[in-house]
Design brief:
single chain, 11 strands, Indigoidine synthase fold, 11-stranded mixed β-sheet, globular, about 45% helix
Length: about 300
């Protein structure tokens, strides 16, 4: 028996779906614990799970609760994560401490990929991935999400890297780690709050079936690591680039003045951008997550058919 089994707990629904070869979609929990205010965080998490079900897959929201790596949360556990103040933002480095100490953790993109892979879940929907922060040439602030994408076999569906990041350097890092960046029905890299950017993806793909085939071929060839699917925010919810870029610049200046750095940077910036845009950025964030959940579910269905 694998050593990790004693640390991993699947919900009955997720466990049954995996045993039967039915499609499952992993969902992260930092969006609940750190990414959005209450009650929008809990409402969004519940709605995302329903979207996954509506598209023919089983949702597996992932978190660490009382030291257990959990894939599939109860409604009560989602509610707890949405209001608790003792939840650690968990990436790869944090998992051993949180588990050994019996603590609670909201899983980032990287940590969610780890737990999903342990559980045997191949598709994961999130909002936006972490990446290379602006000014990283001096701060070395690079998200562990990128390293995880380079080594863990999971398809990650997102709306691009978060717009607060250096998108060009993020693409360069992904290329170095051998991660294919696919644009879902687009050749332009989405920029989270906006549907396009000045950068191009590696390849445009137009169907969930194509994405499933590309990922399966990658893994069949023993080319370890993830596949990044960038899915543009729906046009009606895309924000004005000038407005959002100015909000980002203002938030970055404030973070610098206040000395905010490391894993506290992203939650601070997203919160300030929400305030600066009078809530418009939060509305866009919620809609892009919904859109990613739908596409991820379609991919999971195609991957299950192929297997």
């Amino acid at each position: 028996m694998e050593k990790f089994v004693k640390y991993l707990e699947l919900s009955p629904e997720v466990e049954a779906a995996l045993k039967e070869g039915r499609p499952v979609v992993a969902l992260e929990s930092t969006i609940i614990s750190h990414g959005m205010p209450y009650p929008a965080n809990v409402d969004t998490a519940r709605a995302v799970e329903q979207i996954v079900r509506d598209h023919g897959a089983v949702p597996a929201t992932i978190a660490i609760l009382n030291g257990k790596l959990k894939a599939g949360l109860t409604d009560e556990e989602i509610e707890y994560l949405g209001q608790a103040t003792d939840v650690i933002k968990a990436s790869r480095r944090d998992i051993p401490y949180i588990v050994a100490q019996g603590r609670n953790g909201g899983t980032t993109v990287g940590a969610t990929m780890i737990v999903a892979a342990l559980a045997g879940i191949k598709v994961f929907a999130t909002g936006g991935i972490g990446g290379v922060h602006r000014g990283a040439e001096t701060t070395m602030d690079i998200s562990a999400d990128l390293e995880e994408l380079g080594k863990t076999d999971v398809i990650v569906v997102c709306a691009g890297a978060k717009a607060i990041l250096d998108l060009g350097l993020t693409l360069e890092y992904l290329e170095t780690r051998g991660v294919p960046v696919l644009g879902y029905q687009t050749a332009s890299l989405p920029a989270f709050y906006t549907s396009t950017s000045e950068f191009k993806v590696d390849y445009r793909v137009d169907s969930a079936r194509e994405i499933a085939a590309i990922a399966q071929t990658k893994w069949d060839l023993n080319l370890s690591g993830g596949v990044l699917v960038t899915n543009p925010i729906p046009a009606e919810y895309s924000m004005d680039p000038e407005l959002i870029n100015q909000a980002i610049e203002n938030a970055l200046d404030e973070a610098k003045v206040q000395g905010i750095q490391g894993k506290e940077t992203t939650p601070f910036l997203l919160s300030r951008i929400k305030e600066i845009t009078k809530g418009k950025s939060l509305d866009s964030n919620i809609q892009l997550v919904y859109n990613n959940a739908a596409v991820a579910s379609d991919i999971a269905v195609e991957l299950a058919k192929a297997e």
